[in-house]
Every structure is written in structure tokens, then in C-alpha cells.
Structure prediction request, 213 residues.
Amino acid sequence: MPGRPIIGIIGGTGDLGSGLAKGWTAAGYEVVVGSRSREKAETFATELGGLAKGNDNVGAAAAADVVVLAVPFASHEATLEEIKPALQGKILVDAAVPLVPPKVSVVQLPEAGSAAQIAQRLLGDGVRVVSAFHNVGASKLHAGGRADCDVLVFSDDKEARDTVIELAGVVANRGIGGGSLANSAAAEALTSVLIWINRNYKVSGAGIAITGL
Prediction:
């Protein structure tokens, strides 16, 4: 992908989405914050400054080259259906985690295998789905600077995976390829483990670091 991609963040005013928006905007990327409320998105984009803009979710997806989906799993499929027409030919970065309240510290993967696999099947071959940012605590992103953790990135499309690895390295220590989209199940499940660690050890942002590289 020549030049810097325009990044659209669906759910861009939520905890994770707003943290990612802050990091990429601070690094000089053009970010389109998406929300169900365009007014809310525009207000937050004004606070971000830089090249940030606000729009509704469909508008943000349409304006972007790389679209990040940062919504709760409960609204995952409905949101994908809503923005599907605007995603064709683009990269969709699925950051959704299949947490099932109230037992969010217990791994409960969907029958389809993972949220990312659900997204790829729903969107079809015209969208290059990448899975990433499941194990990055929003508190780390909002603290300023790069989050002190690594980001695992999965996709069946190597070029798309490499693009997101680079973007992850802007907001965190490193983006690290983790293989095919099917492997996303490991990172999605790990989120529940990290939630349990946060609660048990009374911390707010347990993360992962890959050693030996």
C-alpha cells in the first residue's frame, strides 16, 4: 500500500478505539473516528486534533483504506453487516474479542472458531481480514506514547498482515506476525486470561511480550 493509509476506526469513541485513534493521530496518520453518533465522533476528533476527522460508522469505513473494528462482540456481526458495502477491496482489522458476560475471565470462543473467522466468512473474499489488538489494554494506549506490549497480528493475506504489523508498531512496542487467521483464536482466548490476571494481581493492563526475536 503506497504511502500512509487512511485509518478508519469503527467504535472509535470506545475505550480501545479511542486509544488507538490517539496513538495514530499523534504519529501523524489521518484517522477517521467512526461512531453510531456522528456528532460524538466529530467532537472526539476535534479533541484529538491533527488529521483526525469524525463520521458515522459507515462514513468512516467508506473514507478509509484500513478499517479497524473495535466494537463489543455483542454488536460484532450487526456492525459488519452495516459497513460491509464500504469494505470491499480494503483491509478490515478485527479487534473484537468473544467475551461473554458475566464470565469474561473464562475463555468462551464461538463455534465458528474466532471472531476474525466469523468476519471473513461474512465479508467474503473481497475484504482482506486481519486480526489484531486483542491483548492491548486500553489503559496502556491512553497513557501516552507507545503501549508497553507486543501486538500479535494474524491474516491469510501476507501483504495485509505486514501493513497491520507496521501500524501496530506505531502504537505499541512491536507488531508480530502470528500466522493465519485461524490462529487468531489463540489471541482472542488470551484476552480472558489477561482479564483474570488483571483481577487476580490487581493491575489494569497486563500485556504480552514475545521473547527471543
